[in-house]
Structures are given as structure tokens and as C-alpha cells.
Amino acid sequence: MSTSVVDERDSDRRTALHRAAAAGRLDLVEDAIKRGAATDTKDDGGWRPLHSAASAGHTEVVAFLIGPSGGDIEVNSRVDGSGSTALIFAASKGHADVLRVLIEAKADLLARDASKATALHRATGRGHALIIPILINAMRHHAGTFEERDGNGQTAFHVACTMEEWNACIALAEAGADITTVDNEGNAAAMLLSPGLRNQLGLVEKEAEGEAMQE
């Protein structure tokens, strides 16, 4: 089969490799690449095969595509428009194994989508309990990473509070996130917490100390 045939596109401008990656068919992915399929081609939505595989949670396909046999595809490539990377898709969809593979491949933990949200923002907003610790552990060596702000000036902790993802709030606070953060509108994330959680995170004590200093 010639390269031109293997890269023929459907009505959504998806190639056989796109469809195989989205379906998790590693055998067909391998076959398409052996036949000379273009690995970095984009469909109508600006998605590459890697994005489709990561979003659908197909770990083996993702690992193959970013490995030497798959052509060492750029792990930080972005979808046109949304700006999402494979890592952001995996975090947003809660695909822990895919996330680990991408982190091992040195995916950019601080990559931002069109809304300036990172993978941690997306995982936190969706309440993915298994994903948040993986990202936190990977990000411990990056100074200030817990304080990255999205387009609304919100950190991951702020997003967790806004979405009432209390376990995420606790995990981020215990990891060292700034629990006194405010967004672009001056809204304090901590004010969304229940009294019990505020006490658990030490906010009640800190506020009492602040009031005492003002007296």
C-alpha cells in the first residue's frame, strides 16, 4: 500500500491511523505506521492520533506512538483551537496509566490549554482522585507549580474549592498549595470551604492570628 493510500482521509479528515488510535487498536496502529502512515497528521478538529489515543485512555497505543517504533511523536503537541496536549486530555478524562506514560516521557506538566488551564486544573475540576496525587508527586520538583493560574486567575486549589472537590482541596493543601489564594475578582478560595475543612487546613487558626495582629 502506498503512503498516499494509507493516509487517505474520511469526511472528518481522519486517516486510518487516527481511527485505529481512537479505537485502541494497537495492531492496526503498528500496521499503519509500518505502511508509512504520517504520524503527525491532524484531522478537521486539529487532533493528532496521539490526542485521540490519550483522550480515550489507550495506554499501549500512547506508549507506542511516543516511542521509537511509533516515530517519536512530539509528546507536547497541541490540538488546534483548544490548545490541549495529550497530558491535559489524560488528566481531564482520569486516565491514570496514560498519564504515567506521558509523565515518564517528559510531557510538560505546566502546559496550558486555551483557557490557560494546566493538567492539574483539569484533573482537579473533574475531581479525579487518582490523577491528582500522580500530578502532585510529579510536580514536587517544579517550584511554584501548585500556584499556576488559569485565565480566571485561579489556582488548582481555587478550582477544587469552587467545584466543591473537598478531597482535592485537602490533597493540594497537604502538598503545600497556597490555601489563601484569591482569583482575578478577589474571591478567596478558602471562603468556599466548610467550617470543618477550614479548621482542618489550619485556616481558622491563621485567621485568628491575623485578627489578633490587627487589634
From TrEMBL:
Repeat is among the record's keywords: yes
Pfam families linked: Ank_2
GO biological process, alphabetically ordered: innate immune response
Database matches in SMART domains: ANK (SM00248)
Keyword Repeat: yes
InterPro entries hit by this protein: Ankyrin-KH/SAM_domain (IPR051631), Ankyrin_rpt (IPR002110), Ankyrin_rpt-contain_sf (IPR036770)
Gene3D superfamilies cross-referenced by the UniProt entry: Ankyrin repeat-containing domain
UniProt keywords, alphabetically: ANK repeat, Proteasome, Repeat
Entries under SUPFAM superfamilies matching the protein: Ankyrin repeat
PROSITE patterns, sorted: ANK_REP_REGION, ANK_REPEAT
Record's GO cellular component terms: cytoplasm; proteasome complex
ANK repeats: 12-44, 45-78, 82-114, 152-184
Family annotation (PANTHER family): MASK PROTEIN (PTHR23206), PROTEIN KINASE DOMAIN-CONTAINING PROTEIN (PTHR23206:SF7)
The name this protein goes by in its record: 26s proteasome non-ATPase regulatory subunit 10 isoform 1
Organism: Chrysochromulina tobinii
Source organism phylogeny: Eukaryota, Haptista, Haptophyta, Prymnesiophyceae, Prymnesiales
